[in-house]
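User: Please fill in residues for this 501-position structure.
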């Protein structure tokens, strides 16, 4: 049986960050993930290194803040954290983010009060002195009327103007998670995908004993560790239950959905941030020459079904998009594909969709020693989460090894003579050989970005399956079957219209 300082359950962005920070701090670490790394919620996001404006969103009225000073403090604290992490990420890992100009339309109906938007953005800049600028600019109505994309906004006569500012987009979160896993591995961590944790026990020898099963071989095994890190995202309560641990409910799942479309050329590279008619945030986000919009909120459990988009959700988001831009009149035929995920939110009995806070929970003083969990973790603040988890583990156990340099660098791109414009074949083959990619989905969504293109790799997946046969050991027939499974996956999970493929 292997013995470690720390065992991490969950190989999404929070578990990956915990692994790289713990390993760099000298803790011998093992990370166990039941699917592929970043294959769950971390691979279904809106990809924003968001500036934190959402923490001052309209639902959080001034009165709400005045009557709930704790909420106000939490919001300001999280907004400041978002801004600091934004600056730090942009400076440390510029290859994995890109700046986007975002517009927030300011209507006279007060859906987003002008004073509040300005106050929020200016406060954000003040919370991160010396940080990466938001480049805030007020575009007056006269200028809006001549702007190629803004002329598509509804009710131009009712606009006080539009605020523009710079948001950053992760390009792309799954690869950031993979890079982080590989940094952890370089620092000595053992990281395993397709391993499900079934049982967690605090044994009499003062160790955590974790029973897991390798899902490729169906073989069970156990690992022991002095500290247990529950980074299972929307499943943190399930993992706690697998240990019968006296830990209260910590998670509330919240479903989010995005729809990918191609907008007119005038929109290229331009993002929008506003609120839906029901008061929820609404984003229209560029993605190369496409756009996606969403995300919607619904309280749900993290079931496979809730990682798929329902027809009503598509209709709702199309209606909001057409309300914002009546000239577009988007319909189902314009939907290239959709994606949904279940966000882990911190359980809060007062907030049906879960609280907006990201929180570390350390249960050592409540009878569960060396058990650390993280609720409501976000991609945009994952490095903060990794540091917090490592500090909490370090407050309870000593690292068995020496510390090593911590790196946030992007892994250098892998290229080769077999690459074409459509297929980065060298990187795909590298992923299958050195980065634990087992399936075509692992390869095309999380080792390279082909899966997130307009055609989602549907047209090239046969070539990919053939091109990795010498690595995977697939026969020609098996390669066809794997490619077919990949296309079925696109239709089932992303509403990708296979009929047109
Ligand atoms: C539509 C949408 C838009 C979003 N937009 C943004 C955004 O713009 N910016 C942003 O920062 N965040 C965004 N988020 C939120 C963000 O994606 C998540 O909060 C974040 O990815 C959570 O990371 P995680 O590591 O906690 O969870 P996950 O990525 O879900 O990782 C948890 C992992 O634990 C594994 N696991 C669970 N149980 C077990 C077990 N028993 N054994 C082994 N492994 C197990 C799961 O398989 C999973 O891979 C968005 C989310 C959605 C759905």
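Assistant: Residues filled in for all 501 positions:
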């Amino acid at each position: 049986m292997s013995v470690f300082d720390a065992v991490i359950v969950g190989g999404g962005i929070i578990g990956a960050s915990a692994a790289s920070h713990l390993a760099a701090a000298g803790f011998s670490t093992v990370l166990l993930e039941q699917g592929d790394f970043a294959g769950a919620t971390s691979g279904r996001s809106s990809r924003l290194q968001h500036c934190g404006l959402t923490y001052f969103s309209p639902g959080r009225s001034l009165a709400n803040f005045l009557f709930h000073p704790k909420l106000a403090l939490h919001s300001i604290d999280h907004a400041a954290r978002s801004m600091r992490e934004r600056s730090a990420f942009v400076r440390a890992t510029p290859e994995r983010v890109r700046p986007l100009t975002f517009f927030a339309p300011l209507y006279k109906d007060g859906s987003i009060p002008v004073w509040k938007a300005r106050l929020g953005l200016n406060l954000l800049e003040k919370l991160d002195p010396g940080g990466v600028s938001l480049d805030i600019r007020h575009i007056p109505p006269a200028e809006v009327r001549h702007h190629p994309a803004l002329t598509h906004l509804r009710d131009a006569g009712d606009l006080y103007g539009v605020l523009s500012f710079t948001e950053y987009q992760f390009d792309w979160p799954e690869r950031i998670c993979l890079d982080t896993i590989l940094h952890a591995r370089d620092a000595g961590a053992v990281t395993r995908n397709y391993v499900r944790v079934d049982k967690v026990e605090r044994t009499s020898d003062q160790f955590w004993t974790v029973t897991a099963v390798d899902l490729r071989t169906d073989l069970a095994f156990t690992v022991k560790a002095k500290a247990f890190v529950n980074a299972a995202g929307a499943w943190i309560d399930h993992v706690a239950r697998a240990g019968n641990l006296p830990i209260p409910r910590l998670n509330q799942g919240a479903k989010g959905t995005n729809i990918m479309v191609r907008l007119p050329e005038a929109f290229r590279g331009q993002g929008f941030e506003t609120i839906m008619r029901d008061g929820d945030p609404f984003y229209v986000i560029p993605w190369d020459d496409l756009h996606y919009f969403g995300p919607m909120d619904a309280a749900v459990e993290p079931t496979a079904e809730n990682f798929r988009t329902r027809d009503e959700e598509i209709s709702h988001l199309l209606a909001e998009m057409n309300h914002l831009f009546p000239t577009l009149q988007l319909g189902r035929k314009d939907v290239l594909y959709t994606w949904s995920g279940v966000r882990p939110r911190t359980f809060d009995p007062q907030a049906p969709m879960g609280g907006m806070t990201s929180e570390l929970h350390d249960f050592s003083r409540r009878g569960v020693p060396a058990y650390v969990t993280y609720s409501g973790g976000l991609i945009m603040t994952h490095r903060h989460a990794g540091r917090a988890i490592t500090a909490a583990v370090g407050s309870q156990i000593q690292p068995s090894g020496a510390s090593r340099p911590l790196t946030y660098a992007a892994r250098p791109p892998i290229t080769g003579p077999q690459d074409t414009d459509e297929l980065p074949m060298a990187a795909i083959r590298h992923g299958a050989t050195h980065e634990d990619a087992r399936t075509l989905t692992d390869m095309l969504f999380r080792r390279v970005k082909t899966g997130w293109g307009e055609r989602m790799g549907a047209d090239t997946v046969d070539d990919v399956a053939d091109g990795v046969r010498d690595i995977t050991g697939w026969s020609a027939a098996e390669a066809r079957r794997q490619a077919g499974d990949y296309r079925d996956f696109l239709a089932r999970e992303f509403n990708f219209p296979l009929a047109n493929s």
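For context: The mean pLDDT is 93.
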